[in-house]
Specification:
heterotrimer; A alpha/beta (447); B mainly alpha (320); C mainly alpha (350); A: 447 residues; alpha/beta; D-Maltodextrin-Binding Protein, domain 2; 6-stranded mixed sheet; 11 strands; 11% strand; B: mainly alpha; MetI-like fold; 2 domains; two-stranded antiparallel sheet; 14 helices; disordered N terminus; disordered C terminus; transmembrane (chain B); MetI-like (chain B); Sugar ABC transporter permease (chain B); MetI-like_sf (chain B); transmembrane helix (chain B)
């Protein structure tokens, strides 16, 4: 969902602040003498040299403490090359980016989380093709499937930056152990577990899709994840590119399957109220009842780790953790729904290309990973640099060559659908609209 | 002006009802009026009051219980204010910076439109020329233009300049860092003018025509009449326009996002607060305290300008 | 925060203030000097005529062009700024509304066709109508009522500040406050929203207020009324203060009731201010956007024109359709413009 980057990256836990502070201290050590420091530390950046004193502006949806971490992650690069990186994050990123580009005030580089939006700018001739360096390093470190998302009409526009895994169900390992629940491996197991919990009189699932002007997106993730499980990845691709209609029976089947959980009054909405409360519950708060044992299962992406209150242990043996959202038929493979942002450029000055190329390298991914609270799909990145257990698990999944990866579908669709009618349709669907008319409504809006 | 000053003394003189019945009726009216006005005042204040109480409660209390439970188990903290005011992130700096930015943005963004609109309102009311009604109606109608549709062309005006058929009529402005304040002032001034002209025209055009004619006969120029007669008479109207314009600019987010950008060199308080509030979803504790931080200045401005209202607008008093 | 950070900002501010003084002062000075110059020249010409050296200057006629010349100077800043800031965008919007989503081809009136064939648009129009009718009416009534009642009351300043308070809060801030008021928690939980708590105290079950149409639109309208009543109150209160005291005193001596006083004296006296308030609130309501966006984002049948316009133009990359909605908004103002013209005419005649 179009906003995931803004939510994920922007969502900041207090624990990160600690990390950030210690990292700042380190950064200051190395940065103090940076100007004339041409020794070992800077030798790594030699190939980007020759841009001393130049300025590059970056615009993205990542804000606040997460933005601090970003700025730290490229500080050694900036110090050594002398390139001044002027970063700006905004909660209104998508709309503002369009205004700025139309108004002739485009940033040099933007981190765009929606391949659909990326394609719009590419087709309008606003984006510059990625430099050869970037392309080589991206091709070496990312699966070809993933790079297709930033390739428009054969031109490659930019490498992925951060990523996240969406196919997760959050649960409490502690509670599962106490009650003797086991982690389900198949869809049927999942339903059996839900029934078992429901039989105790508790509601097993909690969900929330309220997200300000992006309300509805968490429900689209449900639909996409199940679409990917119900059907083959090929059908998924046909669906997101509109080769099959949105109200195709296959899509209806997937949505109905989501409905067996989301619209089941016995299953939801633990800790909040009836089914309809899903649409007014903020997605940030939706999983929190797990901590009070009021809710047992919450499907949300890896970035939900940041939502747990300070002091919550997020680990396989901790207060909360996540398991893989099970496949319907594991024998057909285990597909993974993921998302992430792409580094694209609106300018092709040498210093802009230098920054773009650097951000595509495994070295950068490592530099950012060490600061914590980040997931990258870069296969050249060292997994030991990722500290949080959930980040580590996500990176493992993303780096696993055997997994079938697919990008969040609503980000691939035209914005009018993926960030518009589909979100609204999901809200209506939760509020009681039937599957058939929900889907045909979206279909008619897709031109 | 002298005609309006005797208003106030009349108020202190108690009305003298002619009989007992009259006295009772008036009492009832005032009592009913008092009750209703207190009721309205309470209704209008309770949400803000709830917000204020919430801003002083600890985070988990805000999220789990209503603010009214404060009365049964009072527990106050200044942490929220501490977090909003002094919590700083390396990329965005401290709130105080944004406070200064807000002031730098607001002061000229109020002065320019108020002054320009006052001049225009005078011209449209008291200088007789052909087509003035149409100009006025045109300006009036521009009020409906939604700000959002004007952002891109205006931004383009700054970043690309104006060129016609390949000839550059005006170069791009190339504003950097602090200079971006200039384009924010420009944008706010443009967007404020239709309402400002409308409001002031209403008051200026109702000034007694005898006054103007007398001045003209005495040989006063338009500039002189404007300065010495019109401006003093419409001070209350100017004061109210100033307040409204101040509030709009102070509370604006959209114009600031586009024209000032998000950095701590130029972004106003609203941009920073929106960030603080939005980064973690329903961060009530930051939202509530942040809202109060941003209310303080507008309230001071209102209270300090209030005496101008009490003097009364001239409207209707002369023409009836 | 240290001074090094602030000083460049203050420098820019000083430049701005100097520019202000130069522009405004300069214009007024110019207007003082130029007429004097012309008056002198005319004097000289008259002297010359009297001496029989030159032909007589045309008399009577020049007065009008000269008035026009002054008007140009008085109007210059406003006209130039409006041309750049608003007139050009209006023209651009008109053109864009005839083009497709990514502005690459002309599509004629297709976007307008889309607008009126879309089911949702009827709902949007109905909601917008509800807003435009209710907000000015209720906000002005409350503001007027309050202004009359607290007039010359003991704690007038405080009382007025209380109602004005919401004006000082941004639309987004106000929406957040009210989302708090309408917040919902399950029946078995503590309520955090005041409205539901009151319902619970009265023995009812908590409701999801923002889900039920059309009640939810009314609840959003409450927010706008809450804000705008302060605006109405400030302007109307000032107008009431300006009613000459002798009129009120005379009426009192005649023994009129407070009710009669309100209808026969107060209301007619403040009519111009009342019109200003209603027109201003109506226009602001037509453009309403933030409140709906923050509270429901147009879900649950609460959408309004300006929000849909913003979404189409900036979120969905459908600039054409967004522009068509904007043009529709422009058309809505026509009745008010007509009203205003008639008003103006009557005023000029009267």
């Amino acid at each position: 969902m179009a906003v995931f980057a803004r939510r994920r990256q922007a969502i900041v836990i207090a624990t990160v602040v600690g990390l950030a502070l210690s990292a700042t201290a380190c950064g200051d050590d190395s940065g103090s003498g940076s100007g004339n420091e041409s020794s070992a530390e800077c030798s790594a950046f030699e190939k980007y040299s020759g841009n001393d004193g130049k300025k590059v502006t970056i615009y993205a949806s990542i804000r606040d403490t997460e933005a601090d971490l970003l700025e730290q992650s490229w500080k050694p690069f900036a110090d050594c090359t002398g390139i001044e990186i002027d970063y700006e994050g905004s909660g209104e990123f998508e709309a503002q980016l369009q205004v700025r580009v139309d108004g002739g005030n485009a940033p040099d580089i933007a981190f765009i989380p929606q391949p659909g939006l990326l394609a719009t700018f590419a087709n309008a001739g606003k984006l510059k093709a990625a430099p050869a360096d970037t392309k080589t390093s991206a091709e070496a470190n990312y699966p070809a499937d993933w790079l297709k998302y930033s390739t428009v009409n054969g031109t490659f526009y930019g490498a992925p930056l951060g990523s996240n895994v969406k196919s997760f169900v959050w649960y409490s390992p502690k509670t599962f152990q106490e009650k003797g629940y086991t982690i389900p491996k198949t869809w049927d197991d999942l339903i059996a577990l839900s029934d078992k919990i429901a039989a105790t009189g508790e509601k097993p699932w909690c969900a929330g899709i309220e997200s300000g002007d992006a309300t509805g997106w968490p429900a689209t993730d449900w639909l996409e994840d199940i679409m990917l499980r119900d059907q083959s990845p090929e059908v998924y691709d046909q669906w997101v590119t509109h080769q099959i209609p949105f109200n195709d029976p296959k899509v209806a089947a997937a949505l109905d399957r989501a409905g067996t959980i989301l619209k089941n009054d016995k299953y939801v909405n633990a800790g909040f109220g009836p089914v309809k409360s899903i649409s007014t519950t903020a997605f940030q708060e939706a999983g929190l009842p797990i901590l009070e044992n009021k809710c047992f299962l919450h499907r949300q992406a890896s970035f939900y780790a940041n939502q747990w209150p300070q002091g919550t242990k997020v680990a396989e043996d901790g207060d909360v953790f996540a398991f893989y959202f099970p496949a319907v038929d594991p024998s057909k493979g285990e597909p993974v729904l993921a998302a992430g942002e792409f580094t694209v450029a609106f300018a092709d000055r040498p210093e802009v290309q230098a920054v773009q190329s650097y951000l595509a390298t495994p070295e950068y991914a490592n530099s950012r990973a060490k600061l914590g609270n980040w997931v990258s799909g870069n296969r050249g990145a060292d997994i030991n640099n990722f500290t949080n257990p959930i980040d580590k698990l996500s990176v493992q999944i993303l780096q696993d060559q055997s997994k079938v990866l697919r990008f969040d579908g609503s980000d691939l669709m035209p914005s009018a659908v993926g960030a518009g009618t589909l979100w609204k349709a999901m809200v209506d669907w939760i509020n009681g609209k039937d599957t058939a008319s929900t889907l045909s409504g979206v279909e008619s809006s897709w031109k | 002006m002298a005609t309006t000053t005797p208003v106030l003394p009349a108020t202190t003189a108690a009305p003298r009802p002619k009989n007992v019945a009259g006295r009772v009726r008036q009492r009832l009216n005032t009592r009913a009026a008092t009750v209703v006005s207190i009721l309205i005042a309470v209704l209008w204040t309770v949400p803000t009051f709830g917000l204020f109480i919430s801003s002083l409660r600890p985070e988990d209390a805000i999220k789990t219980t209503g603010w009214w439970t404060f009365f049964s188990e009072p527990k106050l903290t200044l942490d929220n204010y501490n977090e909003v005011l002094f919590g700083q992130s390396a990329s965005s700096g401290q709130l105080a910076n944004y406070f200064v930015n807000s002031l730098v943005i607001t002061i000229p963004s109020v002065l320019f439109p108020v002054a320009f609109a006052a001049m225009a309102a005078y011209a449209l009311s008291w200088i007789k020329f052909r087509g003035r009604e149409w100009i006025y109606v045109g300006i009036f109608a521009l009020q409906i233009v939604p700000l959002q549709m004007a952002l891109v062309p205006l931004l383009s005006f700054f970043s690309r300049g104006v060129s016609l058929g390949g000839i550059t009529l005006m170069p791009a402005w190339q504003l950097d860092d602090e200079q971006k304040f200039i384009q924010v002032w420009f944008a706010h001034t443009c967007f404020a003018l239709p309402f400002a002209v409308f409001l002031l025209h209403n008051f200026v055009s109702q000034l007694p025509s005898e006054l103007m004619e007398a001045a003209r006969v005495d040989g006063a120029s338009h500039a002189k009449i404007f300065r010495t007669i019109v401006l003093p008479l419409i001070t209350p109207a100017l004061a109210s326009l100033t307040i409204f314009q101040f509030l709009w600019v102070w509370n604006d987010l959209l114009v600031a996002l586009i024209f000032a950008g998000g950095g701590d060199e130029t972004a106003p308080l609203t941009v920073r607060l929106a960030e603080l509030a939005g980064t973690r979803g329903n961060e009530w504790q930051r939202l509530t305290s942040g809202a109060f931080v941003s209310i303080v200045i507008p309230l001071i401005v209102f209270l300090s300008l209030q005496r101008y209202f009490v003097r009364g607008l001239l409207t209707g008093s002369v023409k009836g | 925060m240290d001074f090094a950070d602030i000083s460049p900002k203050l420098t820019v501010l000083v430049y701005g203030l100097v520019a202000f003084a130069v522009v405004v002062g300069g214009l007024l000075l110019l207007l003082d000097v130029v007429p004097t110059y012309f008056a002198r020249r005319r004097e000289r010409q008259l002297i010359a005529v009297a001496a029989g050296d030159a032909p007589a200057p045309p008399s009577g006629r020049p007065r009008k062009p000269r008035e026009f010349g002054y008007a140009i100077f008085f109007l210059l800043p406003v006209v130039v700024l409006l041309l750049i800031g608003l007139v050009v965008p209006v023209i651009r919007t008109l053109l864009l509304s005839l083009r497709n989503g990514d502005n690459s081809a002309w599509v004629g009136l297709d976007n307008y066709g889309w607008m009126f064939s879309n089911d949702d648009i009827l709902n949007v129009l109905w909601n917008s109508l509800l807003w435009v009718v209710l907000v000015p009416l209720v906000a002005t009534s409350v503001g007027l009522l309050y202004a009359v009642m607290v007039d010359r009351a003991r704690f007038e300043a405080v009382a007025k500040s209380l109602i004005f308070l919401p004006m000082a809060i941004s639309f987004v801030g106000a929406s957040i406050i009210w989302r708090f008021v309408y917040a919902y928690r399950g029946e078995d939980l503590d309520q955090i929203g005041l409205l539901n708590q009151i319902v619970v105290w009265l023995g009812g079950t908590p409701q999801q207020w923002l889900l039920e149409s059309p009640l939810n639109t009314l609840l959003l309208i409450v927010v706008m009324v809450w804000i705008q009543a302060g605006f109405a109150m400030v302007i109307l209160s000032a107008a009431i203060k300006a009613i000459p005291g002798d009129i009120i005193e005379a009426a009192r001596l005649d023994g009129v009731t407070a009710w009669q006083m309100f209808w026969r004296i107060t209301l007619p006296s403040i009519r111009p201010a009342l019109i200003v308030v209603i027109v201003a609130i109506t226009v602001a309501t037509m453009k309403i956007f933030d409140i709906v966006r923050t509270m429901t984002n147009g879900n649950y049948d609460t959408n309004v024109i300006a929000l849909e316009m913003y979404n189409q133009a900036f979120r969905y990359q459908e600039t054409g359709q967004g522009s068509a909605l904007a043009v529709f908004l422009f058309l809505l103002v026509i009745p008010i413009v007509v009203f205003q013209i008639r008003n103006l005419r009557r005023q000029r005649e009267g």
